[in-house]
Design brief:
Layout lengths: L1 H26 L10 H8 L4 E4 L5 E6 L7 E6 L5 E6 L3 H4 L9 H8 L8 E3 L4 E9 L5 E9 L5 E7 L15
Antiparallel strand pairs: 1-2, 2-3, 3-4, 5-6, 6-7, 7-8
């Protein structure tokens, strides 16, 4: 009986430790700018979904944590291979940088990272490609942000919508930050 109790306690500690480690790596929490290196970032956060080399020798790495997590982190590395900063990019401040009329999918990817693949659609009648991201809006509710590319001209427009999701008792689910 005691060995069964000990096994349960051991498994509980192991599972809790696993989840705490996973949460720390999720956002890169604990990585210090100017101290952490690119290998440190990859060890903690994993391989990035996308990465870019900057003309000055630095790098930018994209870590989408959706669709369920509703967040993407951009990691900026200096030319010497040290962490400059980590930014949450699925927010209204970053979305505002995507201006109507701007062209280029690469610019959008570098601003807010890759869209959720299952929510990417092409509308033949409008000749328009739509990329979509789920995020926590300023009211801490799940919302969706769309970037629409005119397939002929590449010109961009955007839309924002709050989902009509209701949890128990008709209360919208809380995102959590």
């Amino acid at each position: 009986m005691n060995s069964l109790r000990s096994l349960r306690q051991y498994l509980s500690v192991l599972v809790c430790g696993f989840f705490l480690t996973a949460c720390a790596g999720y956002s890169g929490r604990g990585l210090q700018p100017g101290v952490a290196t690119l290998p440190d970032v990859i060890a903690v956060m994993g391989s990035p979904a996308l990465s870019w080399k900057d003309p000055g020798g630095g790098q930018q790495l994209a870590y989408p944590r959706g669709p369920a997590a509703a967040q993407t982190f951009m990691v900026f590395i200096d030319p010497g291979g040290r962490l400059l900063r980590i930014e949450r990019v699925l927010n209204l401040e970053h979305f505002a940088r995507i201006e109507p009329g701007m062209s280029g999918k690469e610019m959008v990817l570098r601003l807010i990272g890759p869209p959720v693949p299952q929510w990417t659609n092409y509308f033949k009648a409008r000749d328009e490609l739509v990329w979509e991201w789920q995020f926590c809006d300023s009211w801490n509710q799940l919302a969706r942000f769309d970037v629409l590319f005119d397939a002929t001209t590449g010109v961009v427009r955007t839309s924002y919508q709050r989902q009509a999701l209701m949890g128990p008792g008709g209360v919208a689910p809380w995102c959590g930050h």
